[in-house]
Automatic annotation (TrEMBL):
Recorded superkingdom: Eukaryota
Keyword terms, alphabetized: Disulfide bond, Ion transport, Membrane, Transmembrane, Transmembrane helix, Transport
Alphabetical list of NCBIfam families matching this protein: oat
Annotated source species: Callaeas wilsoni (North Island kokako)
Location, primary (coarse class): membrane
Family label: Belongs to the organo anion transporter (TC 2.A.60) family.
InterPro entries associated with the record: MFS_trans_sf, OATP
GO biological process: monoatomic ion transport; sodium-independent organic anion transport
GO cellular component entries: basolateral plasma membrane
Protein name listed in UniProt: Solute carrier organic anion transporter family member
Gene name tied to this protein: Slco1c1_1
Amino acid sequence: AGCEKEPSSYMWIYILLGNMLRGIGETPITPLGISYLDDFAKEENVPVYVACLHTIAMMGPMFGFLLGSLCAKLYVDIGFVDPGSITITPQDSRWVGAWWLGFLIGGATSFLSAIPFCFLPKSLKRPEEANKDKTSHGLLENTGAAKNKLSSEKTKPRKWSVMLKGKLLGNRMYFALLCCSLLQFSGFIGFLTYKPKYLEQQYGQSTSRSNFLIGMTSLPPVGLGIFLGGLIMKKYKMGIIGATKFSFAMSFLSYAISLLHFFVGCDNYTVAGMTVSYE
């Protein structure tokens, strides 16, 4: 009683809206980029091109962790306070890094990199006539005559719920891939979220050092693995079934190796009331 509650900050709303807008802007790149590669590239080169696309995408988080490591070494009020007046170091638990600086640098970089997209032509060059049968363009053109024969009742716009249940979730391969992707990303996001804090608590590393280690040791092997997977698929000319078996084998091997994390760690800190009694 008698305690005055401090007003809470609503800055998290701006961060939420900013990330939402960023996600909306970045979403078309992957589906449209992969569709463009599938339609306009040679069939045997598509796996390599897609692997390169995802490999470059993995470089973003890597540089993000390195940038976060640099920003964590800077005090949160850098530019507004005299650096000589700061009496604590990044190893101090009271230290707060310049977390906001990464958003400014990342936002400015994204804005500059988006400018070239404004100069792309409205219509892209269509593939050659010889490759039309191998692309979705040729497939759509070949099925155009069949669509004209459909009655007006069948050509009416279908509800999204009907399409989702019949065309998407009814496809067993797509549904299995969707479930697999959800499980993989859930584990990957948890790994990136909690591993820096785990390094801080278990190994006594600073925040900047933890981000640096994550960026240099975890993400580059993932990008390299994606690129090598694309090369292997191109070399052996894997089809859908072969690629599925290859993905299952590599995923199973990855999960088996990940079990080694249970055997890595240090003893817990001595905390009164949690790990030891007060006596």
